[in-house]
Every structure is written in C-alpha cells, then in structure tokens.
Amino acid sequence: MTEARRIAADQGVESLTMRRLADGLGVMPNALYTYFPDKAAILDAVLDDLVGDVQRPQRRTTWRRGLVSVMSSYRRLLLIHPGLIALTVSRPMYGPNALRLREDMLTLLRQGGLPDADAVSAFLALFAYTTGFVAFETARAPGGRDTEQRALGHRLHASLPEETFPSTRALAARLAGRPGDQEFTRGVHAVIAGFALSARRSS
Q1: 1-51 classified as CATH 1.10.230.10
Q2: Are 176 and 154 in contact (CB under 8 A)?
Q3: pLDDT tens-digit series, residues 69-123
Q4: Residue 4 in contact with residue 25, Cβ under 8 Å?
Q5: Residue 164 CB-half CA count within 13 A
Q6: So where are the chain's domains?
Q7: CA–CA gap between residue 196 and residue 193 (Å, rounded)
C-alpha cells in the first residue's frame, strides 16, 4: 500500500494502474492479482487507506466542533489528493476507514439531536459541500494566470450596471478572492446550523 500511496501522491490517484504499481514494486503485473483482482480493487484499497488519514474527532469536543474538525481534515486530504474527488463520488466507500468515518459523523449528528432523516441528510450535505468546495478551490491553480482572471472578474463585476446587478457590484471584491479556510469553515458552520435549527423546530 505504501507504493500505491506514493504513486497516488506523485501522479494522482486516477493514474494508478496495475502495471504502474507492479513496476514500482519491481514485480510482474500478474503477481498483484494474488492480492487485487483488478484495478478497481486497488483503487478501493488505496481510497480507503487515504480516508484513514482523516483525523477522528476528539472525545470531549462538542458535536458541532467535532463535525467542523472532521470536515476540515477531509478537505485537507482532498486538497493533497484532488484525484480523490471523482473517486469519492463515483465509487462505493465500504472499507474499514470509510465505515469508521461514516460512524463518527453520524454519531456526532445524533449527539446534536438531529432525527434520523436529518442526520443522514446532514451527513450527505456536509460531504457534498466539502467535495464541491475543494473542486472549486482546485479548478484553477494559484498563480499569475489565476490572479489575472480574478482581477478581470473583479473589474467586470464592478462595472456592471448598479440598477440591474446591485448585489454583484457590491460584492465584487469578495467574489474576486480565492476560496480558502475562512470561507470553507463559514460554510460548514452554516450547513450544521441550518440542520440544527430545523431539528429544534421539528421537536
């Protein structure tokens, strides 16, 4: 698994193949079939191994802080391995680490008093938000070109007719910034608060 992780880190998880892994291990590809029946099995194993890097919530933390901590750790994992984004939404995650992560999340949500249906919905919403946020973060690499495009966007938004686009004009500077830690954390808190409020109203 160490070699598979190295390939995933250097070339991207999506680049992991039986031949590439075999070359890295110095064996023939057919030797891997003793452990993995196909590429899908390798991807499942590597995916679950990487998910094991997500930090578990501290035992004495509040349920909200625990959720923010877990989602922040998950975001950091996706930022390191953006190729995981497509895999996590296209493949079933039933490995031991994925099951542990799911259990931690659902336990925290239930500790917050969310009914069963809301707990599952919140679980899905938090992962969808985090995955989508990272996809947005990594869509354009930081640097000169990104800076130029954001500056162009700022000028465009700020020059729109105020009578037609008052909100876009007012928020032009904020729209031009790169999404980061503060925006992510604010969004996670908002998702959690929304479900918590809904649970209180229905109780």
Answers
A1: no
A2: yes
A3: 999 999 999 998 887 888 788 877 888 999 999 999 999 999 999 999 999 999 9
A4: no
A5: 5
A6: 1-51, 55-142+178-202
A7: 5
Instruction: Give residues with Cβ within 8 angstroms of 57, minimum separation 6.
Output: 65, 66, 67, 69, 70, 104, 108
The model's pTM is 0.84
* Of residues 180, 186, 199, the one with CA closest to residue 142: 180
Q: How far is CA 137 from the centre of its chain?
A: 10
For 178, the 3-state DSSP assignment is: coil
State how far the Cα of 123 lies from the Cα of 105, in Å rounded to an integer: 7
- The phi, psi pair for 140, rounded to 5°, reads -130, 130
Report the CATH architecture of 55-142+178-202. Orthogonal Bundle (1.10)
User: Can you tell me which residue has the tokens 């922040």?
Assistant: 72
Q: State the Cα–Cα distance between residues 18 and 26, nearest whole angstrom.
A: 12
Tracing tokens 């995955």 back to the chain, one arrives at 131
